[in-house]
């Protein structure tokens, strides 16, 4: 229970902290170092006051550790404390200590504390590198100074600098892996992400452990930093420190992530303005990414320098590679410090040698030389024929392509050589399914294409690996991947703009006309295949014919398929699924067959599917004519839109009861290996699609695909592919449940409930997709095609279906496509209102209102 004394101290601390924060924010040039120092001293005073008031034995010690011990107390960071006890008193009851810790919480401090003796500290430090690191920065607040001095002494004696370095190195790798080894996520953690403040702290920790220095100035005096690097390091550290402080103050809590919710507020706090087509938040983030990139470079340089000090190797073998480079313990070393300045071609040769010799990295001297000489890559450099041959050789290499492209990007060389690429470094993408900046997405796509060539990754996408094994020039796909999104952020169609960049690159680098045309085609049409597969009816031979006319050759089809798979896989881990894989592969095979001289026509496709379905039925023991009566109720469109295996499966449970009045529901594990395939069969009813959507919504299922069909005798015969995106579901265990519940829902025919507005995701609220509807007659004038785009939200599909019911619009088929938080659905509709322009306008307005409930400006 909070005492009056605690409440009084709590109020005083809150007021003093707020005054400190207000003073900082009011400064024209805020001093972030001074804020952290003054905040630390403020916390010190209140902790010591509480310590004194609790009358603890003078043999006890109150010690600040971690960031607080370092004197960097961010506005809402935890206060890390060690209460040090004399040996032998660890297990005794300590009511005074319990009261003290309660007091710390009561006065409004977020405390992280431990109560230990010196021997316990040593044991924990030996087991946990994070404990050892926190104790490395201990600072006495109150109590027995001798005990604290003794603790520091024994910790120093126990500390093995070499082991500490390796442990922190492994810890950093794990941290990098947690954040996908990139600082370029759209919501980076400015403390923990690669390139964040933690990278700088790691340097100082290992330097301190190695007794090389406690701050940047000492490291510079030891020759580990150049004067220019020291200046750059201090500038970027100040920038990251100010961002972290602003995050805490804007959110009024411990928040280290640059989340979308406060990116704009942070940018405005720093006085940034929109620039061209970039939002103010994008201006902030590009600055952040640039700083994070510099921090990663300095982290690499300094850790290598410290490693060299900690692990000196006498007479290390230096193996010459050519007149300018040598290899030292698996690292590339330049033989003259000013190599890159007097012979700039070496800036590309360095990466080529990394590939040829399979080296694991570059020495500090080499990294530093490249970093400081990259400005030598100018227009004259890019126009040089030898340099162009070198860059092309990098892409045509047998190994190390992705590693070296990433290294070139990290060191700023790739953007210098390809100016259009430089413009998209750190460029954010607000389309709700890309989770990386444009440059990182591009490099992920190159990596994905590259993996299709590697036997060790053949199990991931066997069909892609098979196609790539027979593709004559895989490096053309790497070029297409580099350029496919390179024009994003310029305004206009990035595919059209990008193909111009790609054509200029290909001509400048001496590619022949056929190869140039292929790369340009891939860049221009890199979205076409996914659009056709996911938004059009690929069972329609006319659709296949038009797509085949677009790709023209099997070589272009193969290349486009491989690039499309790699591109979708490179957007986000959540976007790719088995359904998209099947649609793309089906489109590829149908188009390949058409290009091979066997164009699909309706009659041949109809006959082939029936014959294959009959073969499967015979294998399952059905007599030759058992299915005839049922199939007579189905027309050509049914057979064209369903696979033979699906036709056979549905026939087996319907052939003997296709005239029943009871709803028939059958579910099975989807053949694609993900989710459930569900067939619904019953006498048709106007609101059937809405009822089914309502049930799936109630069970948190998402519809990936819907095949809506009506038999000749008026039965609804619909097939759905559903998945659960939010719960860990064992689909096999819920098949019977889904069948019985959906059957009961359709049998009861209760009135439809009003749609409930689902809650938008945090990402969708800040970057909503503008709602759009395109409604037009089909080519035969029989039905109307409706394409809609909107921000996804729970219950949206049911709300759309409900609106169709209210306007007596019947659904003939549906293509349901969700890309992250973005919905792109297509429907084939029929209804009397399409003959009445005013009714149609009213329908579109109401449907648009449903979509815009999640649209821009709405919460």
UniProtKB/TrEMBL annotation:
Q: Which UniProt keywords apply?
A: Hydrolase, Magnesium, Multifunctional enzyme, Nucleotidyltransferase, Repeat, Transferase
Cross-referenced Pfam families = GlnD_UR_UTase (PF08335), HD (PF01966), NTP_transf_2 (PF01909)
User: Sorted alphabetically, which InterPro entries does this protein's record hold?
Assistant: ACT-like_dom_sf, ACT_dom, HD/PDEase_dom, HD_domain, NT_sf, PII_UdlTrfase/GS_AdlTrfase, Polymerase_NTP_transf_dom, UTase/UR
Any GO MF annotation of the entry:
phosphoric diester hydrolase activity
Entry cofactors: Mg(2+)
In the Enzyme Commission scheme, what number(s) does this protein have?
2.7.7.59, 3.1.4.-
A single Gene Ontology biological process assigned to it is: regulation of nitrogen utilization
**Activity regulation statement:** Uridylyltransferase (UTase) activity is inhibited by glutamine, while glutamine activates uridylyl-removing (UR) activity.
Reactions it catalyzes: [protein-PII]-uridylyl-L-tyrosine + H2O = [protein-PII]-L-tyrosine + UMP + H(+); [protein-PII]-L-tyrosine + UTP = [protein-PII]-uridylyl-L-tyrosine + diphosphate
Has UniProt tagged this entry with the keyword Hydrolase? Answer: yes
The domain section of the record reads: Has four distinct domains: an N-terminal nucleotidyltransferase (NT) domain responsible for UTase activity, a central HD domain that encodes UR activity, and two C-terminal ACT domains that seem to have a role in glutamine sensing.
The free-text function statement in the UniProt record for this protein reads: Modifies, by uridylylation and deuridylylation, the PII regulatory proteins (GlnB and homologs), in response to the nitrogen status of the cell that GlnD senses through the glutamine level. Under low glutamine levels, catalyzes the conversion of the PII proteins and UTP to PII-UMP and PPi, while under higher glutamine levels, GlnD hydrolyzes PII-UMP to PII and UMP (deuridylylation). Thus, controls uridylylation state and activity of the PII proteins, and plays an important role in the regulation of nitrogen metabolism.
Family named by the database record = Belongs to the GlnD family.
Q: What is the protein's name according to its record? A: Bifunctional uridylyltransferase/uridylyl-removing enzyme
